[in-house]
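Thread: "does anyone have the structure for this chain?"

Original post by V.I.:
We have the sequence but no experimental structure in hand. Need at least a predicted one for the grant figures.
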Amino acid sequence: MYSIFVFLAMDVSIVILTLNEYEGVKEILPRIQDEWANEILFVDGGSTDGTVEFARESGYQVVQQSKPGRGNAFREGLAKTSGDIIVFFSPDGNEVPEDIPKLVDRVKDGYDMAIASRFASGAETDDATPLHWFGNRLFTVTINSLFGGSLMDAVNGFRAIRRDCMESIDTDADHFDIEVQMTMRALNDGYSICEIPTHEPERIGGEPELSTFIDGMRLMRTILREYHTTKLR
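Reply from O.Q.:
Generated one for you, tokens below.
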């Protein structure tokens, strides 16, 4: 059992995930406070719009991904940081940076993972189309049913997680299925997950990287694969 002193002493790393998010970074970055974390690291997937240059000029370290894909960005962020708690954040305008300390506080309260939920009581979203809403509910309900969860948003990537939990679940998803894989493996291994209600504003500039059909199919395939390999083996 961890003491309260251990939780309070936990170092925090914020991993900012970017791919051509100059407009979002320019607007969102000034709202991220240095006192929220011991280190802040950009993991960039090959931006060509000035995102990397702006981040470096603002004094932040930027790591260029060695392999493409959101899942690989998560793992490189894990490998290149040292905090006991890691926050994954995308500065595209859809995620509210002021929720970062709230997520960290929940992990310091004793949870292994805290997810910013767009569909929990008190949450709201300005950017989810009816199709996206339906897909999120379908994936979340399926994950809850197969892995014994009670989540409202198993998909959102804006989350904080203990380093030892992230290392233990040993993800291998390469793309936008990384979030559901993290959620499923954490539930399957008995880690505790909580949610905080968040507001999802509209996206700022750039082009959405998520393809509704392709990534939707990938998410469902990952869910079924995880169930087969963890529950039916």
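V.I.: this helps a lot. The longest strand covers residues 12-18.
O.Q.: and The mean pLDDT is 94.
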